[in-house]
Design brief:
By secondary structure, the protein is α+β, with helices and mostly antiparallel strands. The chain has a single domain, classed as Beta-Lactamase, CATH 3.30.450. It contains six helices and five strands; from the N terminus they run αββαααααβββ. It has a five-stranded antiparallel β-sheet, with helices on one face. A hairpin with a 5-residue loop joins β1 and β2. The longest helix is centred in the first third of the chain and has 10 residues.
């Protein structure tokens, strides 16, 4: 039997451990789909060097072929307006609440384009008067 821990003892490190224990990639992004934070499952996909990931567009970090085709990066490719990740984040930012959509992305892996089907879920939230969006990507590990 586990001992109950009083809620006041659950500090920031506890929340980080819980966030990293989630077995699917979860990213915290802003309304521009720029990555602000991510969990351990996402680090397995995009790398754990936060200097290479944070404040960059999700498509760039995932190596989306559309984001890589344009020197200005994620959000500036010819098909970026149709991107399910971007549309889902925009819907969440506009207050539509939880969104769940299927997407087919083309990602560059070892110099080869690979099509990936995934479920994209978003959830807006506010912390300390700032707005953020959880971006959950299911199916990238399969």
């Amino acid at each position: 039997m586990m001992n109950r821990v009083p809620v006041q003892f659950l500090d920031e490190s506890f929340h980080r451990v819980v966030f990293d224990a989630i077995p699917i990639p979860v990213l915290v992004v802003d309304e521009n789909v720029s990555i602000l934070e991510y969990n351990a499952a996402a680090a397995n996909l995009i790398g754990d060097d936060k200097r290479q990931v944070l404040a960059r567009g999700c498509g760039e970090v995932l190596r989306c072929t559309q984001a890589l085709e344009n020197p200005e990066g994620c959000g500036n490719g010819t098909a970026c307006a149709e991107c399910v990740l971007r549309q889902s984040v925009e819907a969440a930012a506009e207050g539509q609440g939880v969104t769940r959509r299927w997407a087919r992305l083309e990602l560059l892996e070892n110099g080869q384009a690979r099509k990936v089907n995934l479920r994209v879920s978003t959830q807006p939230f506010t912390c300390q008067r700032h707005s953020f969006i959880l971006l959950i990507l299911e199916g990238l590990n399969d």
